[in-house]
Amino acid sequence: MIVFIVDDEPLAVESLKLNISKAIDGDVRIETFTNPENVSEQAQLLHPDIVFLDIEMPGTNGMDLAADIKLHIPGVIIIFVTAYSEYAFKAWELRVDGYLLKPASVEDIAVVLDDIRSKRRIEGMTEPLLKVRCFGRFEVFSGSRPVKFKRSRAQEVLAYLVSARGASVTSGELCGVLWEDSVDILRKKAYLRQYVQALREALEKCNAGDVLRHERDAYSINPALVDCDYYRFLAGESNDAHAYHGEFMSQYSWSEEISAELNWFT
User: Fold this and answer.
1) What pLDDT, in 10s, does the model give residues 159-214?
2) Cα dihedral sign for 78, 142, 128, 247?
3) Domain boundary pick from 120, 145, 167
4) Do both 143 and 198 map to the same domain?
5) CA 93 → CA 66, 167, 253, 256, distances in Å?
6) Residue 160 belongs to what domain range?
7) CA 57 vs CA 12, 44, 126, 221, 265: distances in Å
8) Overall domain count for the chain
């Protein structure tokens, strides 16, 4: 396991490094950074499993850095460590995996890691249950067979969750994606529950129910259980480097922003 610590305060880095080494069982490589400028580049080279990240650093906003790391490293675990509790809401908006207040004790770190393990199954991951094609039209396969959805909106919900790459998406955000206007949100949330149920039934029918996760008022997928061309492309795998030809989930209008980002990469 590779762990990054990013904080402009050397004493805070050393304290956190010591407590992380005590909180994590097994082999762990801890890389520390007091200058955030080259962190994104090093992340793309080393592919850390977990990044403990300060929010307020000179010249760099930790939230912007977290977003950049997540863009390039699908599935990376981001944990904010900060002295400012008012950042908690913003942290969850960014869909980071954990939030710790300084000084983070061994017990605090162990608790947040245990919570992440239960959600993300970073230990003992199983083989992918679904094969997902994002380039061109969005398609989903179980083995060699297409997954059938009774409702097209159920497939669209899955498409958006796949695009989020394991991050939690609130029901309100999903309603905003499925319906452009904001009228009668209660009715739309009722419809959304029906679509999610149809999605759950379609996944369970092909023994892939564990792909979908639901917690409180938010949904996500377990990216470890999905073989996805988009994820491989972002990871820089050579076999998929030329798989993108300008179309990303082309049947959905909301995908155009992601397509524009991919065009920038290519």
Assistant:
1) 999 999 988 899 999 999 998 776 677 888 899 999 999 999 999 999 899 899 98
2) negative
3) 120
4) yes
5) 12, 10, 23, 21
6) 130-265
7) 13, 21, 38, 32, 27
8) 2
**Residues listed for the chain:** 266
Distances (CA, A) of 121 to 8, 70, 114, 213: 31, 18, 10, 12
Beta carbons within 10 angstroms of residue 128's beta carbon: 16
DSSP E strands, 23-163: 29-33, 50-53, 56-57, 60-61, 77-82, 98-101, 130-133, 139-142, 145-146
- The pairing of strands 218-221 and 212-215 is antiparallel
- Same domain membership, residue 89 and residue 209: no
Q: What is the dihedral of CA 148, 150, 155, 157, to 10 degrees?
A: -150
Last residue of a domain, one of 120, 147, 179: 120
Interatomic CA distance for residues 217 and 9, integer angstroms: 36
Residues 214 and 250 in one domain: yes
